[in-house]
Write a structure and sequence with these properties.
The structure is a homohexamer of 190-residue chains. Chain A is an all-alpha fold. In chain A, 66% of the residues lie in helices and 0% in strands. In chain A, helix 4 packs antiparallel against helix 5, helix 4 runs parallel beside helix 6 and helix 5 runs antiparallel to helix 6. The relative contact order of chain A is 0.16. Chains in contact: A-B, A-C, A-E, A-F, B-C, B-D, B-F, C-D, C-E, D-E, D-F, E-F. At the A-B interface, helix 3, helix 7 and helix 9 of A face helix 3, helix 7 and helix 9 of B.
C-alpha cells in the first residue's frame, strides 16, 4: 500500500498502530505475509476493537478445527460472493489460491462455487454456508442432517456456521466503510 | 432455564462453564441479569471461542460509543427482524423494552421499524443498518453521507456498521444451531 | 385508546360508529374483549364496508371449520410475519398467546414459525400458508397433496387458503393506511 | 362452462347454488354477463362464504368511489400480474378490455403496466398498488403523499388500498385451489 | 402499423429498410405474416445488426430441431412472462395461439405456465427454461438430467437452453428501448 | 486446452471444426489470441449456429460503436457478475484486464462494479446494464434519460442495451451447458 492511499471511506486515522503491541503485530504480519492486511489498518484506530477482531478471526480461521484452513477459506469466499464484497473476495480469494495451489479453484469460489467440481463433503459444506447467508431463517434440522451425512461432526457444524457467519459480518463492515484490499492480493498465486 | 432443556440443536455439552473464569462470569450474569443468556452457554464448550465472542460483544454493545446503548439495541433488533432470528429478536427485543421503558418500541423493532414514529436520526441509522443487512453490495458514499447529514460522525458510522454487521453474524450462528432464548425474556418489561 | 390518538394516517373520521347497529357492535366488542379493535374503528367511516369486513372476518376466524380458532390465528400471524404488518402481528400475536396460553408460541409465530416445535399438521399448514403468501404462482397440486397427507380435508384446505389469503389482504390495508393497533394488545397474555 | 369441467382442484361440490337466493343470483349473472363467473361457483359450496365474498366484492368494485370502475379493474389486473394469477388476469383482463374499449390496455395491465402510456394519475395509482403488493412493509407517508399529489383524496387512497389488497387475497384463493376461469373470457372484447 | 407510430423510444430512424435486400425481406414478411414485425423495423437502422439478429432468430425458431415450433414459442413466452416483456409476450403469445389453435394455451404461457395442464415433457422443458431465466447460476447436472429423463437429447437441451437464453436477450433489448409490438397481434387467433 | 478436457456437459462432439471455413476461423483465433475460446468449440457442432453466434458477437463487441471495446467488456463482466457466470466472468474478466492494463479494474467488474472508482459516464452505463439485467420490466424513460444526461447518444443506448442483453443470453447458454473457460484466461494480464 502506498502511504497516501486511503484504506476506508471513513476519516478514522491513517491505519498506523496505536500501541507497541499493535506495532509488533503489524511487523509480524509484514514478515509472514509480506504485507499488513488493510482490514487490520482499518481497525487500528482503536486497539480494543482491533484485538477483539483479531482474536475472533484467529480462533476461527487459524485455530483447531475439523475443517482445514483451505476449507475455511473456501467458505469465506463463497459467502463473500453472495454479498459481492470486494475486500473479502480479493483477500480470501488469494488465500484459496495459495492454500490450494489451484488458481482456478479460487476463481470458482469467487464466481460461482456451484459449478466447481467439488467433493460431496465440500458441496454440502458450501451449500450450508450459502443457504445460511441467503436465508438464515430457513435453516432447519434437515440442513444440519445433510452436513452430518456428509461426515461432519456437530463441532464441525459449529465451525462451518461460525465461519460463514463471521464473513457475513466482515463483508458488511467492509462494504459499509468501503474497505480497500491491498493491491498485492490481485497478483498472488495466479 | 430448566436444567434439562436444550440450548442448541448441536451436541456440544450442556452449557456448563469449562473454567473458573467462565464460572465467575456466569455468576456475574446471574447476579446482574437474573439469568445466564443462553448464547453464553452455547459458546461455553470452548473457552477461547466464548472469550472472543464476549470481548467483541461487550466492546460493541457496552463500550464507549457515540451511540447510546438503546440505539445499539434498536439496530440489533431491526437487523434481526430482517433475518427472522428467534434468539436475537427475543433477547434484544427485551433489551429495547427495558432500556426504553417503552414496550411498544420493542415490538416495532421486532415487527417493522419503518412504521415506528422515529426521529430523523434513528430513521437514518436504522435505514442504513437494514440496507447493509439486505444488500451490502449496494452501500455507497451517498449512504454514508445520509448518516453524516443526520448528525453522525465517522466514528459513529463505524459503530452503526459494526453493530449491524455483528448481528448479521449472531443471527446466523443462532439460526444455524437453533439456539433457544431463555424463556424469561418473553415476559420482561412488558 | 385515548380519544385523541389517531387510528390511521388517513383523514376519514374519528372512528366513531355511524349507526346504532355499529354502536351496538362496538359496545359488544368492548364488553367481550375489553376494547374495540382499531381495525373496526378504521372501517367505521362507512357502514357498508365495515359490515362486509366483519362478515368475512367472522365467517373465517370464528365460523365452523375443521381448523381450530388457534390454528386460524397461527396462520394469521405467520402470514403477517412475512408481510411485517405491525397491526396484525400485534393483534393476532396476542390472540395466539391467549388461545394457546403459551406466550412463546405467539412470539415464534411473529418471529419465525419455522423454528417452532410444531406438529407435522401445523408445519404443513403453515408451510402452505407462507408459500401461498410469498409465491402464490408456484402453488401446485403437490402442495395441496402435502396438506391432504397431513390429514386435512379439501374443505380444510379451502379454509387454510382463505385465512392465509385474508391476511394478505388485511396486512396490506393496514400497511397502506398505517393502522395503529390498540396499545392494550402489547401486554396481553404475556 | 361445460357441465363436467372442474372449477377448482378441491372436491367441494359441483358449483351448483345451495339456496334459492343463490340460484337467483346466478341467474342474474347469466342474464347480465352471459355467464356465472367461476369464482362464484367455487364459493357456492357454502352460502355464508359466498355472501361474504360477493358483499365485499360488490362494495369494492361496483359501489360508490372516487375511482371509476375501469380504474378499479386496472388495479385488479396490475396486482394480479405481480402474483401471476391465471384466474384473475383472465377475468379482470377481460373487464379492462370491455370497460375501456381498448384491448391493448387490457394486455398492458396483464403484461407490464409500467410501459403503458398512462396519465400521471393512473401511474401513481398503479405504482402504489404494485408496491403495496410487493413490499407492503415499505409503504410510508411519502407513498400516500404521492397519491395526494396526483389528486387522490384520503377516501380514494382507502379505495386504492382496499382494491389492491382484495386482489392480493383473491389471487391467493384462486391460486391455492387452482380456480379455472370461464373459457368465454379469453375471446371477450378483443 | 400506422406510419407515424413510434417503434421504440430511441431516435434511430423510422424503421424503413436501408437496402434492397432488407426491403425484399420486409416485403416477404408482409406477404407471409400480413405485417412486418416491429422488432425488424427496430433493427432496420443498421443492416449488419438486422442480419445478425434475423440469422440467429431464424436458426433458433425456424431451423431444424428436436423441438417443434410450438414448443420453441412456448419457451419464448414463458421466459418473457418472467421478464414481463410487453413486446415479446404480445408477439409470441400470438404465435402460441396460432400454432396450437388453442387461445387458452397462449394465455397460460403469458400468465402462469405452471398452472397449465402440461405433459411431463412440456413441464420439464418450461421448468428448465424458467429456472435458467430466474437463477442461471443454480443450474446443475441434476437439471440437465431432469430433461434427459423427460426424453430430451443433449442436442434438444442445447436448443431449449438457446431459445430460453435468446429471449432473455430479446426481452431486454425490447424493454431497454420500449419496443412497441404491432397492434395486429392483440386480436390474432383469439 | 488439453485435448481430452470437456468443454460442456453435453455430448455434442469434441469441439472440432466441421468445415474448412470454421477450421480457418479457429486457426485465426489461435494465431491472434493464442487459443480458441471454448465458446466457439461449444458451438462448433453446428456451423450455422456458430456463424450466427460469431456474427452477432463480432458486430456487438468489435464493430463500430460509440462505446470503446473496453466499455463493452466492462458491461459484459458487470452483467455476468449478476448472473454468476463462470465462463463469461473468466473470459471477459481477462479482456477487461488486458484492454485496460488494470488488473484491479477487471476484479472490480467481476466482484462488484458499484464500489469501483468510476467516471459518471461509466457508472451510468453500468447502472443501466445491471438494472436491465436484474429488473428489465422496470426500465423506463427516466433510465434512458440518465444515459443521455451522461453523454450517450440514442445509438449508444442501443449498444449498451444490446451488449448487456447479449450477455444475459450468453451467461444462460454457458450456465445451461456448464461451459468451461480455457484455463489460460485465469493467469492473463494479472
Amino acid at each position: 500500500m502506498t502511504e497516501n492511499e486511503r484504506i476506508t471511506a471513513l476519516d478514522l486515522g491513517d491505519g498506523s498502530p496505536q500501541s507497541p503491541e499493535t506495532a509488533a503485530y503489524f511487523a509480524k504480519c509484514e514478515e509472514k505475509l509480506g504485507l499488513v492486511p488493510n482490514v487490520l489498518r482499518a481497525y487500528a484506530f482503536d486497539d480494543g476493537k482491533l484485538r477483539a477482531f483479531t482474536q475472533m478471526y484467529n480462533d476461527l480461521m487459524l485455530g483447531d478445527s475439523g475443517l482445514s484452513k483451505l476449507e475455511r477459506e473456501m467458505i469465506a469466499v463463497a459467502v463473500s460472493s453472495v454479498n459481492h464484497c470486494f475486500y473479502c473476495l480479493t483477500a480470501h480469494g488469494a488465500a484459496v489460491r495459495q492454500l490450494s495451489g489451484d488458481p482456478k479453484l479460487g476463481e470458482l469460489m469467487v464466481m460461482n462455487y456451484r459449478v466447481a467440481d467439488l467433493t460431496p463433503r465440500h458441496r454440502a459444506m458450501l451449500d450450508f454456508a450459502v443457504k445460511l447467508t441467503k436465508e438464515p431463517e430457513a435453516i432447519l434440522e434437515a440442513d444440519r442432517e445433510a452436513l452430518r451425512k456428509a461426515g461432519f461432526s456437530d463441532r464441525d457444524i459449529w465451525d462451518i456456521a461460525s465461519v460463514a457467519a463471521f464473513f457475513n459480518m466482515s463483508n458488511r463492515v467492509a462494504s459499509a466503510v468501503d474497505m480497500q484490499p491491498n493491491d498485492e492480493y490481485h497478483g498472488m498465486a495466479r
